[in-house]
Amino acid sequence: MKALIMAGGQGTRFWPLSRELYPKQLLKLGDKHTLLQQTVLRLDPLIKPRDIYIITSGKLLVDIKSQLSEVDKGVLSGNIILEPGPRNTAPAVGLGALYMKKADPDSVMAVLPSDHLIKENKKFLATLKKAEALARKGYLVVFGIKPARPETGYGYIRLGKPLGGGSYKVDSFVEKPDVKTAEGYVSSGEYLWNSGMFVWKAGTILDEMKEHMPGLHRSLMKIGRALGTGKESARLEEEFGAIKPQSIDYGVMEKSKNAAVIIADFPWSDLGSWDSIQDVMPADSEGNVTVGKVVNLGCKDTTVYADNRLVAAVGLTDMIVVDTPDATLVCRKDMAQKVKDVVGALKDRGFDEYITHKTVQRPWGAYTVLQTGPMYKIKRIEVKPGAKLSCQMHHHRSEHWIVVAGTATVTRGDDVFPVHVNESTYIPMSTRHRLENPGKVPLQIIEVQNGEYLEEDDITRFDDDYERV
Amino acid sequence: MKALIMAGGQGTRFWPLSRELYPKQLLKLGDKHTLLQQTVLRLDPLIKPRDIYIITSGKLLVDIKSQLSEVDKGVLSGNIILEPGPRNTAPAVGLGALYMKKADPDSVMAVLPSDHLIKENKKFLATLKKAEALARKGYLVVFGIKPARPETGYGYIRLGKPLGGGSYKVDSFVEKPDVKTAEGYVSSGEYLWNSGMFVWKAGTILDEMKEHMPGLHRSLMKIGRALGTGKESARLEEEFGAIKPQSIDYGVMEKSKNAAVIIADFPWSDLGSWDSIQDVMPADSEGNVTVGKVVNLGCKDTTVYADNRLVAAVGLTDMIVVDTPDATLVCRKDMAQKVKDVVGALKDRGFDEYITHKTVQRPWGAYTVLQTGPMYKIKRIEVKPGAKLSCQMHHHRSEHWIVVAGTATVTRGDDVFPVHVNESTYIPMSTRHRLENPGKVPLQIIEVQNGEYLEEDDITRFDDDYERV
User: Of B321, B341, B424, which is closest to A297 when you measure between CB atoms?
Assistant: First the structure.
């Protein structure tokens, strides 16, 4: 069996902790591994690293590679599929199926979101194995979750004829219900939540797409013919431009006669919004979840996430407070679904706090913007032991570097020299330079940029360990 | 008439905007002047600047002088009285009375808090004038406010025999009532709020203290004999150590037979907590007061104060959110009185966000701590045109300075040299140095400190324009 991990999420629902360039799947939420890393690790030993495919967007590639390398599971870099743009789940699934069918025409593929929470892994793997058997018989298998509450945020699946071993034909898919309807679904025992996890043969899903989504199928076939050739990325770009966004649920599952559902009885959460954070973090006796430097006076059922600074919460009930270095969210718990509208409002108003964090991860370490002012910008730069930034040049800024921890090797023009703690150096405009940590402990420098244009895109790269030239 | 402005407030109720070293009276709340500056300006032309006395604590002296110099009202620096420690209002009033009686034995003194809001200044001055006449007859006059609502946070005054012109003998002072009692007070028309503003002869209040607070009076007499001599500050220190904290209301007013109240019919607020911010800042049609970079989705009657960073508020009703660079408060409006308990909790837990802001005002400009790390600290320093820091030395740190705006004159040991934009210099440990802005625009430098001890008290001053040597 192969797995297609869907890692193209947009990072709107967990704002301000998630950002467009650092979405939920890249976050650690109450675990030492990120949700993406957990998704990969969870497949061991049923699915081999070389059989894991990850589909995402180019702007997340560096971070995803970096996170995979941390868990060192041997996921092949050729198995990372880049979508030219977000087109919902059906095109991503189709693209994954093309890759897998090419690798092995009989491939069974599990489609797994990269940002869900799953516990009791043995049960998960057992369910996956049973689903594989159904998939080999030609079924499109969806994982159904026994509803724990009359949730109105999920789609439901009505059970049809039993197929044995906790699996059923799907009678029908139903859209997100209102509370009353949801209560009826839960008490009837005939409905399961649609988890968004699927298992099928790559060939089967492509055949079903041919029947139910012929336009998408035609595009996929054109892409398929270019796969592995020099034309692949141009063809992908071209076809994806014309593909309409569509979900696999609406596009195929709701129309197919071969849909089956298997009961998934492991603890699961889609972590769909901030109010689900209590699924991953323990609450105190008053139902409060607090992370970081928090002073709580008389709060109840309230989540306070303080990244770095102090947060004082007084008399709050059923609230969510999330504090990050550049943005704070205060939200009623039952309106947590509106957080994505906040991100929309930020875009509309030209604010940029939805794009990145103040601290930006890089393959060589990280940088934090401490301050921006007219004609200057101050960054703290941390370089991992043995790592180096690209050899680069800026046309519009000079840089002062002061080492505050570790030792740097600085290349400036033709000179190469060490800079130690409490020493500084200066990089004039339009001068080739490179920063490297030759040591065994992290290097930290403070960079003061001066110039009339101080954006990240004023960079000309000459050489790079991370293929960004 | 003279005025004693009480400016020793502790800065707990408006935390995190107010701090121990930057209390409410120093804040601008919806006005171009701070509350202290407004209090001084409000007395013009009735009370001359040289007749204004300000009583405060030494740790606020520099900021108070700096704020007075900004409004340039000619308040004499000899009129700033420093209390050795907080002892509530009675000792402060007594000390002020000593000063005033010494200047003129027939002084009438108005006692005015420095952090109240008053509008319609003509009415205020007219009330002050009428109170002066009563004070000259020997009354202790308190300003009473017609209650606008059954407030449970104030003491009330029951009206006695009319004295004409909107003034009355005081029948009795009553403590903060419960809601039901307060409602009765308001509907009876016989009660006024106790505003904490008083007018009396300096001699009268000292006589009343002799009767009702004999211990305090004895201490004051000892201090009085040392006034203006070389022993003054030692005597003050000595006596204040033994004085019990006591309010003038409880210590004298409630016991005196000569208490009178005058109806103050100007708009007034004591700005006693964050929920009174709506008295100074305009609300939108939904009752929301927002300051700064705020995204509001469906909030009602909510105050969001964003100092610098972005705050998103979703679905809040009757809430207060206050965001500052190092601390955020989220508080139910009807629990705004609990904010002082937050400050208590911070002290108990050893957090220091109640002491100062990240940006600290100095007579020569301001500095902001951008980041602290092990063995390093980064500051942005802004020096006003023409101003200079003290000539100083540090034993435990060296400093890198990078000029990002303006031009600096740097003294380092025996050298004096200019440092321009995009230039840097280095001050080794134990080296005398001085930073000066010789120019016409603000000087901004980034300072990176390196060393094993980086606190403000590692400073030896040799020369200072602001008498801090």
Answer: B341
